[in-house]
From TrEMBL:
Biased composition (Low complexity): 1-14
Domain of life of the native organism: Eukaryota
Start and end residues of each Gfo/Idh/MocA-like oxidoreductase N-terminal domain: 25-146
Organism: Petrolisthes cinctipes (Flat porcelain crab)
Record protein name field: Streptomycin biosynthesis protein StrI
């Protein structure tokens, strides 16, 4: 959607500006893909949000962000420590550093009195998640974790229908996260999330908000009593390398037969300007040789051009998590790399009087089948979602999260936040429990183990 067009969503926001709360100011810690994603709200709705500072170690990325948001030099920091040492100069902070670097800036900003929008996962260790939770509670600041699915119109409709009892008592939820074959190769085989010791396990990195979705739809009145998980790194292993394959895609004799070829993923479909996933391969500064040349050199020499069967990756490419709840209800979450669809989630909720299905790959609407009348009612969200500019991630869910966070900070009303500290901590604890179950081959009992209790 063109940035010059005034959408219905923008008109609504402008009306809120005249009728309601003040403009919110924000600093961004980590100006990579996710940080820029959330900061664009200030560009689209400058009457509601103003980006006033940034902390980012990469010079080009920091300077590009500075230029985009017209920031003065003295509000652009190389490290989050420098920013946190300055006197508080904004209402809130977006913490969108790499996963393993969340805890220290989040704690520091909470202690400074900043409200916090924290990219998921909260942290990569159970004790660090607890520390963030405790410090935010102690400081009395708003902490919203980016479990964006809770804010997405189709998911909110699912929750509304469940709460209204239209399908009776929920008995089972079946949820699938299809990561996408080239997305997984990019992020979890060649990229920043390929190795547990460098980031975290793939269920936490990719699916902690899918775990959260299961808990959200099941309801706060149901505790997870038992949990098990199975999964492995099934395919991206050295023993599965094709005969005659090279160590780098651009020098490989069998590259043309490989669906995970870096040439296919990055170069054959190269856009005229950086966009995901090519934007993650290299920082493109002004180059006399042009974008394609720089991208080719990065693929030729960098980690994104390595053979997927020769990387140092160790995270699961397929995993299932099974939940049992206090009333006997059950749920299953499946994360799978080998899919055509790219992160187009599907949730099926089975109740005693009907069922609900949300399938992003088939239009994103919610289907309600009623057992009594044997009829299906379809709830569509095209108007809500189409009014969100295309630049927003997760099909527009990121926008609805940011909208809610800005409202909460502006008004001081925490009811806008439905991914608050307690719910988010519980989600993360169960993700850690699931991984321990997978590794040890044991059933976890969160209700009986204080490690998994908030």
């Amino acid at each position: 959607m063109s940035g010059t067009t005034t959408t219905k969503q923008q008109q609504k926001q402008q009306q809120q500006h005249h009728d309601g709360p003040r403009k919110v100011t924000v600093v961004v810690i980590g100006a990579g893909h996710r940080g820029k994603n959330y900061a664009q709200y200030a560009l689209q709705y400058p009457h509601l949000l103003d980006v006033v500072g940034v902390a980012e170690p990469r010079q080009y990325t920091r300077q590009h962000f500075q230029h985009t948001h017209s920031l003065p030099d003295d509000r652009c920091y190389e490290t989050w420590e420098e920013l946190s040492e300055a006197a508080k100069f904004a209402d809130c902070a977006v913490v969108s550093t790499q996963d393993q670097l969340h805890v220290e800036p989040a704690v520091a900003m909470a202690r400074k009195g900043y409200h916090i929008l924290l990219e998921k996962p909260m942290a990569v260790r159970e004790e660090d998640c607890r520390t963030i939770y405790e410090e935010a509670m102690k400081a009395g600041v708003i902490l919203a974790v980016c479990h964006v699915l809770r804010y997405y119109p189709p998911v909110r409709k699912l929750k509304e229908l469940i709460n209204a009892g239209v399908i009776g008592e929920v008995v089972n939820i079946n949820h699938t996260e299809p990561v996408g074959f080239y997305h997984f190769a990019h992020s979890f085989v060649r990229g920043n999330w390929r190795k547990t010791s460098l980031s975290t396990f793939s269920l936490l990195a990719k699916c902690c908000h899918d775990v959260d979705l299961v808990l959200y739809l099941m309801g706060n009145n149901k505790e997870c009593t038992r949990l098990s998980s199975f999964g492995s790194l099934h395919h991206f292993r050295k023993e599965n390398k094709p005969l005659g394959g090279g160590s780098r895609c651009l020098e490989c004799k069998v590259e043309s037969t490989c669906p995970y070829s870096a040439k296919k993923i990055y170069l054959d479909s190269c856009p005229t300007k950086p966009s995901w996933p090519t934007s993650a391969v290299c920082d493109i500064e002004d180059s006399p040789h042009g974008y394609l040349h720089e991208l080719t050199q990065a693929v030729r020499n960098g980690p994104y051009g390595k053979c997927v069967y020769e990387s140092d990756n160790d995270v699961c490419d397929n995993q299932v998590v099974n939940f049992e709840f206090s009333d006997g209800a059950t749920a299953t979450l499946t994360m799978i790399a080998f899919t055509k669809n790219l992160c187009t989630r599907k949730a099926e909720v089975y109740g005693t009087r009907g069922q609900l299905v949300w399938d992003e790959a088939r239009g994103g609407h919610v289907d309600h089948y009623d057992f009594l009348t044997r009829t299906t009612k379809i709830y569509s969200f095209e108007e809500d979602i189409q009014e969100v500019p295309e630049s927003w991630g997760h099909g527009g869910a990121d926008f609805f999260l940011m909208e809610a966070f800005v409202k909460a900070v502006a008004s001081g009303d925490r009811k806008h936040i439905i991914s608050g500290p307690r719910e988010s901590l519980q989600t993360h604890l169960l993700a850690f429990a699931a991984e321990e179950s997978r590794v040890k081959g044991e059933v976890m009992c969160p209700e009986q183990d204080p490690r998994w209790a908030v």
